[in-house]
Amino acid sequence: MSIAILPMAESFSWSSATIGLVQSSFFWGYLLTQILGGVWADRYGGKVVLGFGVIWWSLATVMTPMAAAMGLPALLVARACMGIGEGVAMPAMNNLLSKWIPVKERSRSLSLVYSGMYTGSVIGLGLSPQLINILGWPSVFYIFGSIGVAWFIWWVKRASSDPREDSLISTKERAYIVENSVEKKELNSIPWKLLLSKKPVWALIGSHFCHNWGTFILLTWMPTYYNQVLGLDLKSSGLFSVLPWITMAVSANVGGWIADGLVEKGWSVTVVRKLMQSIGFLGPAFFLTQLGNVSTVTEAVLCMMAAQGFDAFSQSGLYSNHQDIGPQYSGVLLGMSNTAGVLAGVLGTAATGYILQNGSWDDVW
């Protein structure tokens, strides 16, 4: 959408505020299913919930061009529906990882899995300008939505929520995973009062809000920044938007290996998580504030790459910590913290549009 929004805005004569509204409408639905996705994943299994999410948001993606042709209200509903499907993804993924990944391999495994999201951003940002130039902007939604449907069919046949249920892995591998993982009992009820009374839970919630404020602004507005401030065309905006996400995919895995290495050397898991998250906050904070001082495309892209690269260390910080402090409720905990993160996405994305309506990009940074 961050690429397609440029020709869509031109076609429908949208203002910056309307662009911000369209971008943020995804998060309206995304917000609704964060905690529900965690509850469902912990109760029914990550395979079922993740599969549901993918097929739901894929169908909503395919319907987006038709909704846009019907008018702005219909488009906002379609985007919100897409958010509803994507909202269950991260809690379901966290649930699956808590069952499949031994504790000592957690950071690098989670970073590798999550780097798939960054790789998807790279592919989407790289291909979208080509598709738009050749087939028009609706093709982006039709093609990517269809790929999601095909993935769902594969997922149903191949995936399992628990290694003990998977007939495709060896007995040796299954025994190793079970012996080196924290056993999760069947979830019958959720102690909401107990969870909300714990300081580590609120630390996760606050960290997730702060993390997503910057991340979602860059995700949704980066191509527009390149176009409006640096004067790049659609193709170039998409190309240069890819580079920070490549950096993020690489850095996430580097951070994961570093974090797991420190844990294996005897470092406290708590210290390692705090160290990784501190890097994930301070690095982006510094480089994003420098964007107001740059004047060339190279400088802007390098700042974006550095900011996203350091941001990826959060995968070994807050994103790994849910399974550390509450493996029994890892999906629910991620849903709780990511709800705050989605609020940051809603507010930050919409606020950027309104700031640009009356101010400049320097005000945003």
What's the short story on this structure?
The protein has about 375 residues and is mainly α. Helix content is about 80%, strand content about 0%.
Word description of this protein:
With 365 residues, the protein is mostly helical. The chain has 17 helices and no strands. Helix 3 packs parallel to helix 6. The model has no long low-confidence stretch (mean pLDDT 85).
Measured between the Cα atoms of the first and last residue, the distance is 22 Å
Q: What are the low-pLDDT stretches, counting only 5+ consecutive residues below 50?
A: none
Structural class, please? mainly alpha
Roughly how much helix do the residues carry, as a percent range?
A: over 70%
Layout of strands and helices, then pairs:
Layout: H1 5-12, H2 16-32, H3 34-44, H4 46-70, H5 72-86, H6 89-100, H7 106-135, H8 138-158, H9 171-179, H10 192-196, H11 199-228, H12 234-264, H13 269-289, H14 297-311, H15 318-325, H16 330-358, H17 361-364
